[in-house]
Amino acid sequence: LYIAQLMEANHTLSVTVEGHTSTKADANYNLTLSQARADYVKSQIVAQYSSSLPSTLTAAERATKISAFSANITAIGYGETMPLDANDDTEEKQNANRRTQIILKNNADY
Predict the structure, then answer these.
(1) Distance of CA 109 to CAs 48, 75, 105, 106, Å?
(2) Which residues pair with 100 in a beta bridge?
(3) Cα–Cα distance, 93 to 26 (Å, whole number)
(4) Are 30 and 21 in contact (CB under 8 A)?
């Protein structure tokens, strides 16, 4: 995960983590699963950033930095609503729909 380094180097970046699923389960379950996937990826990006902070920071400084960093990452679960292949009748197509996508946005452009 090099996302944390990119965000640290460019403070105008924000990140959206999208979770997706196939259609092989109940829609509500898939929505929950996709949100969990997106939340997990976000947590890993934040953990990577956290581990890169200097050990000389106080607990309060560390918490402030992590909170500000985390605020620039949005995790969204879309469930089965945005498939890459709407006809996921094969294992290959289902696997393609089971994914997490990371979208970077340069907020300096807006």
Answers:
(1) 26, 22, 9, 6
(2) 19
(3) 18
(4) yes
Q: 47-64 pLDDT, tens per residue?
A: 999 999 999 999 999 999
Nearest to 76 by CA among 1, 13, 22, 16: 16
Q: pTM for this one?
A: 0.90
Residue 6 CA from chain centroid, whole number: 14
Q: How far apart are CA 24 and CA 47, in angstroms?
A: 31
Give the DSSP letter string of 66-102: HHHHHTTEEEEE-TTSS-SSS---SHHHHHHHSEEEE
Q: Are 80 and 23 in contact (CB under 8 A)?
A: yes
Beta-strand relationship, 99-106 and 13-20: antiparallel
Q: What gap in Å lies between CA 15 and CA 67, rounded to an integer?
A: 14
- Which residues are within 8 A (CB) of 57 and not within 5 positions of it... i.e. 6 or more apart? 65
